[in-house]
Amino acid sequence: MKLYETLAADIAGQIAQGVIREGERIPSVRQTSQHHNLSVSTVIRAFLLLESQGVIESRPQSGYFVRRRPPGAALPTTAPLPPAPAEVARAPSLDISALVLTTLRSIDQGSVPFGSPYPDPALFPWARLNHYATSIGRRGGGRMPLSDLPPGNPELIRQIARRHLDNGLAVDVSDIIVTAGATEAINLCLQAVARPGAAIAVETPTYYALLQAVRRLGMRVLEIATDPQRGIDLAALERAIETDDVAACVVMPNFQNPLGFRMPEECQRTLVDLLARHDLPVIENDVYHELYYGDSHPASLKHFDTHGLVMHCNSFSKSLTNGWRIGWTLPGRCHAQVERLKFLNSPSMPSLPQLAIAEYLRTDGYDYHLRRVRKTLAQQASIMAAAVLRFFPDGTSVSTPAGGYLLWVGLPFGVQALELYARAQERGISLAAGDMFAASGAWRHHIRLNYSYPWNPAMEAAVRTLGLVAGELMEPLRRSG
């Protein structure tokens, strides 16, 4: 058993013996670290494991408490927990999943939502979308079972093709497959081009959901260095292709999560040409495409694809509504395989959300809505970056997002992201620790902050608090020189 497994078993044993009862608070991360002479990271992993097993629960600004069990439920066991690799850098997906779930639950319970991967729901035109959904439902238009089958509702597909055309990309409607968000689209594309054991080249850092998807499918994550202005290192990628069994590459060229860069068009073109020389498919995650700052929309890899190798994945979840999970893919020459996998994975998609979005795109002011959202996000990006540099200790760095709603923060020397995460949770503030964004553990001194929510005194106070906590974590280093 690893250290964190042993600690989790000890805590579960104390609960089973009644030392700590249901509803009672357990010692804090800091207290447990000091009492057991363990690192904060080890304690956090133990707490996350217990939370994923339903033994304890986190409460914002209060700490961790023993979860109340339903009548007749078994007491927590002190038996050995599932095995895990020794290195924190290669923590199993269970740990990352638990960390993500803890973050999202804390937001749902009222924490400051800096750790959210989703944009502020208040940015979306819910009233208009609900109006269309209600109107279509009353007319009986939502009961169209055959149009629910892959590739999706024909009217929505037509509107998606029209939207691509407005952005300078002519798309055949027969190329589009509607999916349950971009995540399903990426999963389907991965399954179409790779088998278990194959290596998938990804940017580092990259969005944690991609890392989990690759692992869940039994594939290997192959991390490629990524520049915060120009994107994935093309020379390093080519070396990896020539020396490893790379089955596909997955990139986010526009407003990458978490770095926020916009990959220059010449780099996008060179990347597509490179992969074409090796006849290697690339899965393009372009969910932030519409959230650009400035006057012109970005290009996408699909613009430069002449061989059908670019598998473009997109979604309305970041720009229009995150409640209905409607996305799509343009899988190129793998269209038949992806459509078949979509049918096997989920034979139909709800028609009402598809029709409501199609109606909104056809008749309402989508471009007006997007201009308002872009302006808001660009302003808040500048405010958040300035606040972080003002309140955090010297040595802090911030990214310069060209779009989207996420800020990547480099912490000063000595400040571990997981320790900051734990202390922030105790104060009712969520954030995304850099440990979540790589398999190699290279980003333990970074955090990601969501700036899509309205800036107000409470948000400013939360950033100030994070800066003070970061300073506290540096104090032992200062004292030791």
From TrEMBL:
<dbReference type="InterPro" id="IPR000524">
    <property type="entry name" value="Tscrpt_reg_HTH_GntR"/>
</dbReference>
<feature type="domain" description="HTH gntR-type">
    <location>
        <begin position="1"/>
        <end position="69"/>
    </location>
</feature>
<dbReference type="InterPro" id="IPR036390">
    <property type="entry name" value="WH_DNA-bd_sf"/>
</dbReference>
<keyword id="KW-0663">Pyridoxal phosphate</keyword>
<dbReference type="InterPro" id="IPR051446">
    <property type="entry name" value="HTH_trans_reg/aminotransferase"/>
</dbReference>
<dbReference type="InterPro" id="IPR015424">
    <property type="entry name" value="PyrdxlP-dep_Trfase"/>
</dbReference>
<dbReference type="InterPro" id="IPR004839">
    <property type="entry name" value="Aminotransferase_I/II_large"/>
</dbReference>
<dbReference type="InterPro" id="IPR015422">
    <property type="entry name" value="PyrdxlP-dep_Trfase_small"/>
</dbReference>
<keyword id="KW-0238">DNA-binding</keyword>
<keyword id="KW-0032">Aminotransferase</keyword>
<dbReference type="GO" id="GO:0008483">
    <property type="term" value="F:transaminase activity"/>
</dbReference>
<dbReference type="InterPro" id="IPR036388">
    <property type="entry name" value="WH-like_DNA-bd_sf"/>
</dbReference>
<keyword id="KW-0805">Transcription regulation</keyword>
<dbReference type="InterPro" id="IPR015421">
    <property type="entry name" value="PyrdxlP-dep_Trfase_major"/>
</dbReference>
<comment type="similarity">
    <text>In the C-terminal section; belongs to the class-I pyridoxal-phosphate-dependent aminotransferase family.</text>
</comment>
<protein>
    <submittedName>
        <fullName>PLP-dependent aminotransferase family protein</fullName>
    </submittedName>
</protein>
<keyword id="KW-0808">Transferase</keyword>
<dbReference type="Pfam" id="PF00392">
    <property type="entry name" value="GntR"/>
</dbReference>
<dbReference type="Pfam" id="PF00155">
    <property type="entry name" value="Aminotran_1_2"/>
</dbReference>
<keyword id="KW-0804">Transcription</keyword>
